[in-house]
């Protein structure tokens, strides 16, 4: 059964306030944990990942652990997708279809909430909107075959503050809003997605990702999975072979990867606690079913190497 975000005029009815922020919260920031990271090491698959950058911008795993990241615990262990705004049935269908992939990718339960209509959003005075520039609207509307209900951009931060931050279900480790409207914030005129690294909330816009052609599903998959990983306190990196690479344009997104680098995946394992071999096996099966031999072969090799390394 779906759960629903309830909107009443200018207020959001709060489901639950989550007081258990993180099972690794450290009351004294001067106290650094000493952690044996051996069980998280993915050195065995390092040579499968060709890092296309000259500098290492990542935190080490130990630094990540000591940053008190957002983590799964005994209560918060479900990822929710929240569609909102005006949305074509094709997009809602794509969101539902991505649940299977996300469950395998994250090794967590993933559920879709009921969509919040745009009329309800407009009644909330704290959520800022503005018109999409005429040139952008004309271009993307023509690409999509007409989008008369998507003329307005939504200010991402105002939506996150008004709807997501304090309104997560009790069992939510992360809630990702997904809209077909264009989104922006004070720094950028448009965004593919944005996430709060500590609060476990974020947004994705499909406005500039969708032509309803074959690339649409891949674009949504990359951006949605990337933003959810960010919500486990794992920031973007400068690594063109990693899902978390920051994309400045739609062309960079097209060329971007579905896979996490070994260093990013080590952090995600710490935050979620999955078994590497099971995740690799599940992803190999998923990509085989999708007829993507390259991705399937990659995960099969990862599985073989990690199993060998563990013996």
UniProtKB/TrEMBL annotation:
Keyword Hydrolase: yes
Cofactor(s), by name: Zn(2+)
Keyword terms: Hydrolase, Metal-binding, Metalloprotease, Protease, Zinc
Biological process, per Gene Ontology: proteolysis
GO molecular function annotation: metal ion binding; metallopeptidase activity
Family annotation (CDD domains): Peptidase_M54 (cd11375)
Protein name as catalogued: Uncharacterized protein
Native organism: Flavobacterium orientale
């Amino acid at each position: 059964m779906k759960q629903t975000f309830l909107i009443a005029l200018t207020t959001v009815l709060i489901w639950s306030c989550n007081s258990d922020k993180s099972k690794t919260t450290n009351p004294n920031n001067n106290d650094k944990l000493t952690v044996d990271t051996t069980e998280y090491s993915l050195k065995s698959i390092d040579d499968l990942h060709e890092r296309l950058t000259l500098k290492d911008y990542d935190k080490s795993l130990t630094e990540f652990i000591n940053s008190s990241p957002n983590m799964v615990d005994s209560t918060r262990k479900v990822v929710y997708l929240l569609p909102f705004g005006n949305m074509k049935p094709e997009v809602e269908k794509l969101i539902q279809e991505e649940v299977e992939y996300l469950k395998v990718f994250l090794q967590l339960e993933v559920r879709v909430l009921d969509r919040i209509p745009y009329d309800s959003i407009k009644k909330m005075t704290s959520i800022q909107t503005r018109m999409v520039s005429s040139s952008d609207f004309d271009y993307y509307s023509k690409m999509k075959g007409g989008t008369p209900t998507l003329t307005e951009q939504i200010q991402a931060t105002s939506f996150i503050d008004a709807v997501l931050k304090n309104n997560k279900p009790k069992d939510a480790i992360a809630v990702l809003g997904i809209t077909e409207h264009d989104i922006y914030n004070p720094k950028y005129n448009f965004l593919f997605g944005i996430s709060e690294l500590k609060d476990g909330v974020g947004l994705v816009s499909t406005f500039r990702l969708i032509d309803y052609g074959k690339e649409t599903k891949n674009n949504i998959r990359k951006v949605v999975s990337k933003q959810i990983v960010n919500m486990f306190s794992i920031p973007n990196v400068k690594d063109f072979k990693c899902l978390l690479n920051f994309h400045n344009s739609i062309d960079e997104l097209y060329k971007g990867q579905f896979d996490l680098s070994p260093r990013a995946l080590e952090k995600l394992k710490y935050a979620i606690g999955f078994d590497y071999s099971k995740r690799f096996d599940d992803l190999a099966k998923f990509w085989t079913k999708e007829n993507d031999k390259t991705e399937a072969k990659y995960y099969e090799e990862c599985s073989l190497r990690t199993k060998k390394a563990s013996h």
